[in-house]
C-alpha cells in the first residue's frame, strides 16, 4: 500500500478540487442564490406569499444546486486514471465513493446550508425558524448529494452528462424533498425531521454501493 | 427454470408463434372489454356518469405501469446476477413499453379527473405523484442506456439504475402517501374482496388480462427484434473480417 490510503487521498482530493480551476465551491453558491433570487420576480413580491413559500423555494434551490457540479466529481477521476488505481486498491471502492461524495458535500453542500438563513430572511421567512431548519437542510442536502453521486458515477463515462445526471437523480429526491419541506414547516419537534433523517440514512446505506458498482463499470 | 428460458434459440423458437398469439388474443380481449365498457355496462353517476367508462383503459394501464417497473427491476436483477443476455434484452424492451403505459395512465387519469374532480391534475394526490415519478424513472433509464457507448455498458448501467430505482419506489410511495389524498381507495385488490359490482368487475379484469397478454406479446416482439439486430451485427462483423 502506498503512503497515502486511497480513502484519505479521495477525501483530500475532493476538498482540493473545490479551490482548483472553475471555482468549484463558488459555482453552487452562485447558482443557489441566483435561483432563489429569481423567485420573487416570478411569483410576486408580497411578503405574506413569499414567507409561506420561502422554505420550499430553498428546498428546490438546494436540490438543483446540489447537481450543478456533480458532473465533474467522478469524471475527472476517470479521465486522469486515478479511478482505475482506486479500483485496484485493497480499500473497498464503495468506501472511496462514499468519501468522495461526502467530501464533495462538505465543500459544495454545507456552504449552501450556511447560506439558507440570509436567503430565507430575504424571502421573508420567520428568522426564528431558519436556524433550526438548517439541520433539515443539512440532512436533506446530504441525501441529495448521495443520490446525485450515484447518478454522477453512472454518467461518469458519458460526455456532457450533466442533464442526464439531473434526469436520473431528481426522481430519487422526492422522499427527501417531501419530508424536508414538512420538517422545515413543523420545526425540529415534529416527526418529519425523523423521517427526513431516515431517508438520508437510507441513501447513505445504498448510494455508496450503487456508486461503486457504477464506477467499476466506468473503469472497465 | 431461469436457465431454460435463457437459451436464445429456445426463446426464438417459442416466441416465433407465442408473440403473435399473445398480440392476437390480447387485442381480441381488449376489444371485448372496451366494447363492454363503452356500450354494455350501465353508467355510474357516483363516479361522474359516462366518463367512468375511462376506467376500462385507465385501471389496466395503471396495473401495467406498476407491473412493468417490477418487470424492469426483476429482469435487471437477473441480468446483473447471472448475466443472461435475454434478461437484458427484456429489460431494454420493457422500458419504452412501461413508459408508454405510464403516460397512458396519466393521460386517461387526467381526462377522467377533469369532469369528476374539476381539475386535470392534482399535486397533492399520492397515486398520481407516484406514477409521475415512475414515468421519470423510465425516462431516465432509457436516456442512460442511450448515452452509453457499448451494449454491455448500457446493460450494466441500466441494471444498476433500475435496481436503485426499485429500492426507492416503496420509499417514494410511502412519502407521497403521507400527503392527503382524494384519489379513491383501491376497490379491486382488497382483503375483504372487491368493492365493485361484478357487472363492472368482469370487463375490468378481462381488460387487465388483455393488456397483460398484449404487453407480453409486444415485449417478445421487441426482444426478437433485438436478437435479429445482434445477429445482423455478427454477420456484418464476420463479413468485414473475412474480406
TrEMBL record, chain A:
It is found in: Cell inner membrane. The keyword RNA-binding does not apply. It holds the Pfam family CcmB. Keywords: Cell inner membrane, Cell membrane, Cytochrome c-type biogenesis, Membrane, Transmembrane, Transmembrane helix, Transport. Signal peptide: none annotated. GO terms for biological process: cytochrome c biosynthetic process; cytochrome complex assembly. One of its GO terms (cellular component) is plasma membrane. The keyword Membrane applies. It is a multi-pass membrane protein. GO terms for molecular function: heme transmembrane transporter activity. The chain crosses the membrane at residues 21-43, 49-70, 91-114, 134-156, 163-182, 194-219. Belongs to the CcmB/CycW/HelB family. PANTHER family: CYTOCHROME C BIOGENESIS B-RELATED, HEME EXPORTER PROTEIN B. Required for the export of heme to the periplasm for the biogenesis of c-type cytochromes. This is Heme exporter protein B. The lineage of its organism: Bacteria, Pseudomonadati, Pseudomonadota, Alphaproteobacteria, Hyphomonadales.
From TrEMBL, chain B:
One of its GO terms (molecular function) is heme transmembrane transporter activity. This is Heme exporter protein C. Its main location: membrane. InterPro entries: Cyt_c_assembly, Cyt_c_biogenesis_CcmC, Cyt_c_biogenesis_CcsA/CcmC. Keywords: Cell inner membrane, Cell membrane, Cytochrome c-type biogenesis, Membrane, Transmembrane, Transmembrane helix, Transport. Residues 27-182 form the Cytochrome c assembly protein domain. One of its GO terms (cellular component) is plasma membrane. The chain crosses the membrane at residues 21-41, 61-82, 94-113, 128-147, 159-180, 200-222. It holds the Pfam family Cytochrom_C_asm. GO terms for biological process: cytochrome complex assembly. Belongs to the CcmC/CycZ/HelC family. Coiled coil: none annotated. Required for the export of heme to the periplasm for the biogenesis of c-type cytochromes. NCBIfam families: ccmC. It is found in: Cell inner membrane; Membrane. It is a multi-pass membrane protein. It comes from the Bacteria.
Amino acid at each position: 500500500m502506498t503512503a497515502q490510503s486511497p480513502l484519505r487521498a479521495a477525501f483530500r482530493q475532493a476538498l482540493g478540487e473545490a479551490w482548483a480551476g472553475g471555482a468549484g465551491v463558488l459555482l453552487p453558491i452562485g447558482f443557489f442564490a441566483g435561483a432563489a433570487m429569481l423567485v420573487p420576480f416570478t411569483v410576486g413580491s408580497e411578503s405574506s406569499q413569499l414567507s409561506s413559500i420561502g422554505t420550499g423555494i430553498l428546498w428546490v434551490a438546494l436540490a438543483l444546486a446540489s447537481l450543478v457540479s456533480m458532473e465533474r466529481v467522478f469524471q475527472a477521476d476517470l479521465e486522469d486514471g486515478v479511478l482505475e488505481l482506486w479500483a485496484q486498491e485493497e480499500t473497498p471502492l464503495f468506501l472511496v465513493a462514499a468519501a468522495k461524495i461526502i467530501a464533495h458535500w462538505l465543500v459544495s453542500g454545507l456552504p449552501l446550508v450556511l447560506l439558507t438563513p440570509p436567503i430565507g430572511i430575504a424571502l421573508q421567512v420567520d428568522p426564528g425558524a431558519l436556524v433550526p431548519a438548517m439541520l433539515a437542510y443539512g440532512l436533506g442536502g446530504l441525501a441529495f448529494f448521495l443520490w446525485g453521486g450515484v447518478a454522477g458515477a453512472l454518467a461518469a463515462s458519458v460526455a456532457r452528462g450533466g442533464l442526464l445526471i439531473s434526469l436520473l437523480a431528481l426522481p430519487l429526491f422526492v422522499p427527501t424533498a417531501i419530508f424536508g419541506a414538512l420538517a422545515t414547516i413543523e420545526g425540529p419537534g415534529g416527526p418529519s425531521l425523523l423521517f427526513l433523517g431516515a431517508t438520508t440514512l437510507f441513501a447513505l446505506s445504498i448510494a455508496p454501493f450503487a456508486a461503486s458498482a457504477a464506477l467499476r463499470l466506468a473503469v472497465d | 427454470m431461469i436457465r431454460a428460458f435463457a437459451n436464445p434459440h429456445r426463446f426464438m423458437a417459442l416466441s416465433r408463434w407465442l408473440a403473435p398469439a399473445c398480440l392476437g388474443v390480447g387485442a381480441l380481449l381488449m376489444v371485448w372489454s372496451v366494447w363492454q365498457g363503452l356500450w354494455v355496462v350501465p353508467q355510474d353517476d357516483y363516479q361522474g356518469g359516462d366518463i367512468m367508462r375511462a376506467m376500462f383503459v385507465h385501471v389496466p394501464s395503471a396495473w401495467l405501469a406498476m407491473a412493468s417497473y417490477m418487470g424492469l427491476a426483476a429482469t435487471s436483477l437477473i441480468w446483473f446476477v447471472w448475466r443472461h443476455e435475454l434478461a437484458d434484452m427484456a429489460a431494454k424492451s420493457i422500458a419504452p413499453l412501461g413508459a408508454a403505459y405510464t403516460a397512458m395512465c396519466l393521460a386517461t387519469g387526467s381526462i377522467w379527473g377533469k369532469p369528476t374532480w374539476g381539475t386535470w391534475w392534482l399535486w397533492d394526490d399520492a397515486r398520481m405523484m407516484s406514477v409521475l415519478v415512475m414515468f421519470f424513472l423510465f425516462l431516465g433509464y432509457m436516456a442512460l442506456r442511450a448515452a452509453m457507448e457499448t451494449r454491455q455498458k448500457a446493460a450494466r448501467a441500466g441494471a444498476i439504475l433500475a435496481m436503485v430505482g426499485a429500492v426507492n419506489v416503496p420509499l417514494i410511495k410511502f412519502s407521497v402517501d403521507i400527503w392527503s389524498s382524494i384519489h379513491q381507495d383501491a376497490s379491486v385488490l382488497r382483503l375483504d374482496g372487491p368493492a365493485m359490482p361484478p357487472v363492472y368487475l368482469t370487463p375490468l379484469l378481462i381488460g387487465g388480462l388483455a393488456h397483460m397478454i398484449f404487453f407480453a406479446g409486444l415485449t417478445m416482439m421487441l426482444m426478437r427484434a433485438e436478437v435479429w439486430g445482434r445477429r445482423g451485427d455478427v454477420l456484418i462483423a464476420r463479413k468485414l473480417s473475412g474480406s
